[in-house]
Amino acid sequence: MSIKNLDQLYRSVIMDHYKNPRNKGIIDESNVTIDMNNPTCGDVIHLTLQVEDGIVHNAKFEGEGCSISMASASMMTQLIKGRTVEEAQSLATVISNMMLSKEYDDSIDLGDIEALAGVAKFPARIKCATLAWKAMEKGVANDSEQL
Amino acid sequence: MLSKEIRNHFPILDQEINGHPLVYLDSAATSQKPRQVIEAISNYYNLDNSNVHRGVHTLGNRATEAYEGAREKVRKFINAKSTEEIIFMRGTTTALNMVAQSYGRANVGEGDEIVITYMEHHSNIIPWQQLAKEKGAVLKYINLEEDGTLSLDKVREVITDRTKIVAMMYVSNVLGTMNPIKEITEIAHAHGAVMVVDGAQAAPHLKIDVQKLNCDFFAFSGHKMCGPTGIGVLYGKKELLTVMEPIEFGGEMIDFVGLYDSTWKELPWKFEGGTPIIAGAVGLGAAIDYLEEIGLDHIERHEHELAGYAMQRMSEIDGLTIYGPLDPEKRAGLVTFNLNDVHPHDLATVLDMNGIAVRAGHHCAQPLMKWLDVSATARASFYIYNTEADVDSLMDGLRMAKEYFNDVY
C-alpha cells in the first residue's frame, strides 16, 4: 500500500485534532449559529460563534464526520478565535486556494492548517476539509452587517 | 461461481488504480459495461442512427426497429403481458416520480395514506413526501425488524383501507434485504391500494416476473445492470396506464394537435414525450441479451455465494460490524459495514489507495441511516465480474486500514 501517500493526507497534526478536538461544544451566548452538511456523504457541523465589534471572540463546533472534516473544524475554531471577521474570511480563502493547489497568502500565521495542504491531492476529500470553513464564512457573511 | 472469463468482457476492469489492479466493488451504485453493450451502442451510432417513428427512409425504420425491439426484450425480461406496459424513462427516479405525479395526483386525496418503509432510497421517499404534502395525505413508514428485514405482521398493521399507494424497494441498496413483494402486494390489494416497486437493485440480480409478483408498477434503471446511464423502465399494468395522464407533453407523444386541445398516442408512447432515449434503449437491450446469456439464476447464485464468502471473511476482523440480515440466502450481493471508529470516508480513501472502489456515505438512505443509528457506512457490492479474489483483496485492504488507523489514532 502507498502508506507514504496516505501519510500526506493523514498528517499527525490532523489526527491529533481528530482525536482531541479543540473547541468542541456549543456556546450558549453565541450570536451566530450555522448548521451545514455535506449532502453527498452525511457529514454535519453545528457551529456557534460569538462575534462582537467585528471580532470573533469565541467559536465552538459540534458535528459528525470523517477525520478530515472534524479535524478541519477543530483547526478552524482554534485559528479564528480572537481574529477579526476579515482575517477569518482571509483564512477561509487560504484554505480554498490550498485545496485548489493555488498560491495562497502565507503572510498570515496559518498555525496547524498548513497540514491540510495534502488534502488537495485527494480530490474526493476536499469537501471534507472545506465544510467547517464554508459554515464559518456563511455565518460571518450573514451577520457581518449587524455585528 | 461464474467463470473468470466474464471479467474479460469488461474492458474497464483491466487497469491499475493508484498502482494496484482495479477491484471494483461499487456495482450497486452503477455496474460496469461489457464490450457487447459498448459495441451495440457504438454500432447503433455508426450504422443506424436516426429519429424514430417518423422516417419514411430506411435509417428511420432501422432506428425504430432497434428501439421497439429493445422494448420487446424488456417485456420478456420482466415477463410483462405486452409492450404497451413498458415505458422507457431516464431511470428509476424518473419512473417513480412519474407514478407519483400521474397516478398519485389523480388518486390520492386528503387523509388518504401512502405507505413506504424505513429502508427506502431517497428516490422512493421524496416523490411520496411531495405528493402527501400537496394532497394533505399521510405518509406512513413500516418499521424494520432488528436484522433489517420486513415482517408481514408489521406490514399488515400499517396498511389500511385508507391506503392508496404502497411503495417499496424489492432489494435494499444498504441492507441487501430482499423484500417479499408478492405477499405484500396481496396485502396492498386486499385494501384496494396499488403496489409500486422500486426494482433498481433487483433487476440486475434476480429473475423478475411482474405477473407473478402481481405488482402494479415496477421501476428499474439500465445502468445498474450492464446497460448505459440515462435509460430506465417503468412497467405499469395496462388498465392503470390506460387511464393515467401523461406528465410530459410535446412531440412524439401526441396523436392529433389542435389549437386549443390535443389527443395522445396510444400506450406506451403517450408517456414518452420528445425524441426518446434510442441509443440508451439499444444499449439496455444488449445488456438484457448479455445477462440472459449468462442466466439470471446463475447471477443470483453467484452473488449469494460471493456475499456469503465476504461476510464469512469479514467476520474474521475484530470490530467490523455488518448491517442487514446475516443469512446470505436472505440478501443480495452487497455488504454494508463499519470498521471500529474508522470513519467510512477514511476507510474508502485507504481502500482506494489499494485500487479498491467501495461506496462510503449515507447511500441516499438518510432515514435508514438514522434507523441504524449511524451517520455513514461503507459498502462493498458485487456483480457478475467479481470473484473471491476481489473479496480477498478487500480483506487485505481492510486489515491495512485497521492497522494504519490504529497507528495514527
UniProtKB/TrEMBL annotation, chain A:
<dbReference type="GO" id="GO:0016226">
    <property type="term" value="P:iron-sulfur cluster assembly"/>
</dbReference>
<dbReference type="InterPro" id="IPR002871">
    <property type="entry name" value="NIF_FeS_clus_asmbl_NifU_N"/>
</dbReference>
<dbReference type="Pfam" id="PF01592">
    <property type="entry name" value="NifU_N"/>
</dbReference>
<dbReference type="GO" id="GO:0051536">
    <property type="term" value="F:iron-sulfur cluster binding"/>
</dbReference>
<feature type="domain" description="NIF system FeS cluster assembly NifU N-terminal">
    <location>
        <begin position="10"/>
        <end position="128"/>
    </location>
</feature>
<protein>
    <submittedName>
        <fullName>Nitrogen fixation NifU-like protein</fullName>
    </submittedName>
</protein>
<comment type="similarity">
    <text>Belongs to the NifU family.</text>
</comment>
<dbReference type="GO" id="GO:0005506">
    <property type="term" value="F:iron ion binding"/>
</dbReference>
TrEMBL record, chain B:
<dbReference type="Pfam" id="PF00266">
    <property type="entry name" value="Aminotran_5"/>
</dbReference>
<feature type="domain" description="Aminotransferase class V">
    <location>
        <begin position="23"/>
        <end position="394"/>
    </location>
</feature>
<dbReference type="InterPro" id="IPR015421">
    <property type="entry name" value="PyrdxlP-dep_Trfase_major"/>
</dbReference>
<dbReference type="InterPro" id="IPR020578">
    <property type="entry name" value="Aminotrans_V_PyrdxlP_BS"/>
</dbReference>
<comment type="similarity">
    <text>Belongs to the class-V pyridoxal-phosphate-dependent aminotransferase family. Csd subfamily.</text>
</comment>
<dbReference type="InterPro" id="IPR000192">
    <property type="entry name" value="Aminotrans_V_dom"/>
</dbReference>
<keyword id="KW-0456">Lyase</keyword>
<dbReference type="GO" id="GO:0006534">
    <property type="term" value="P:cysteine metabolic process"/>
</dbReference>
<dbReference type="GO" id="GO:0016829">
    <property type="term" value="F:lyase activity"/>
</dbReference>
<dbReference type="InterPro" id="IPR015424">
    <property type="entry name" value="PyrdxlP-dep_Trfase"/>
</dbReference>
<protein>
    <recommendedName>
        <fullName>Cysteine desulfurase</fullName>
        <ecNumber>2.8.1.7</ecNumber>
    </recommendedName>
</protein>
<dbReference type="InterPro" id="IPR010970">
    <property type="entry name" value="Cys_dSase_SufS"/>
</dbReference>
<dbReference type="InterPro" id="IPR016454">
    <property type="entry name" value="Cysteine_dSase"/>
</dbReference>
<comment type="function">
    <text>Catalyzes the removal of elemental sulfur and selenium atoms from L-cysteine, L-cystine, L-selenocysteine, and L-selenocystine to produce L-alanine.</text>
</comment>
<dbReference type="InterPro" id="IPR015422">
    <property type="entry name" value="PyrdxlP-dep_Trfase_small"/>
</dbReference>
<dbReference type="GO" id="GO:0030170">
    <property type="term" value="F:pyridoxal phosphate binding"/>
</dbReference>
<keyword id="KW-0663">Pyridoxal phosphate</keyword>
<dbReference type="GO" id="GO:0031071">
    <property type="term" value="F:cysteine desulfurase activity"/>
</dbReference>
<keyword id="KW-0808">Transferase</keyword>
